[in-house]
Amino acid sequence: MRKGFLAWIVLAGLLSACNSGSTSDVEGGPTALATLSQDFLPALGEVPNPERGFAGDSYYPDEPSLDAEAKVAEARSRGFEIRLIRRTYYLHAFANQDTLPTAFLHTLAQDLASAQAAGVKLILRFAYRPDENHPSGPTYCDPPEERILAHLEKLGPVLRANRGVIAYLEAGLIGPWGEWHSASPEAGLMDPFPWYNEGAQPPCGQGNYDRKLPNARTLRIVQALLREVPGRMVAVRYPMAKAKLLELEAGGPLGTYPSPSAFAPLTPGEAYGNTLKARLGGHNDCFLASENHYGTFYYDPGPQQNLEKAYWSEDSRFTVMGGERLS
Description:
The chain is α/β, with parallel strands linked by helices.
């Protein structure tokens, strides 16, 4: 990276010399250009690659504002460089409000400015539930679709104004941690798997992990998120989720597991366009935690699980792919 940059400066200097002065001497003959040589020395240490590699983590409101330079310094003190920070915003304080406070939007803008000043990009996730619901703990609920869409409209102008600092977004918004499972039955932002007997649920759901199948509401929320941040990809939590969203967009059935034909990876001709298929990537937040990566892939070993793993492997040649290791 550094060598290429130096080489470009040298080349630019030569081109400038050719164009800034006369191309002939006072007698009308051609002017000889001086030979310029440059020795390149090997770069010492790591050369960080933008938008690649490990990411720092930061969570709102536990960290009310982002100090991106401090995150970079912390990583460097541990012996590695980062050029990405995943900033997750838990919006449970606003889940019952139809609009987002101006103060929060100002915080978001400041965070994006902090990332720009530190020379990093952000992976953004917005979510309403910072934890699962437990009998002895607080209850967190998915907001209704209309409220989420209204919040996205408020976020959009800030995100578009700082689009250059955004690497990509994680879909978030639904379920605990925004990870697209255990969705609140009342809001109905996702359906249960067809084989899953959810049973009677306490308010906002509890222990109902397999309510994770995208439906029409999920699709509209994802489409709205993509509209608010043009030119950026959105990563979804499961390969099944992307396949189902594409199936629904094509007019496919609700409430069914996506058909094998829905797991068709991007081709070079389809990649990098402004389609749902081209702009949806993935994030595996239980990487290697089990054979199915704790429900990231189809639960049972066999053809369907193998299909989903191959799908993500092929699809991610042209899309973003992130995640975390469950410890």
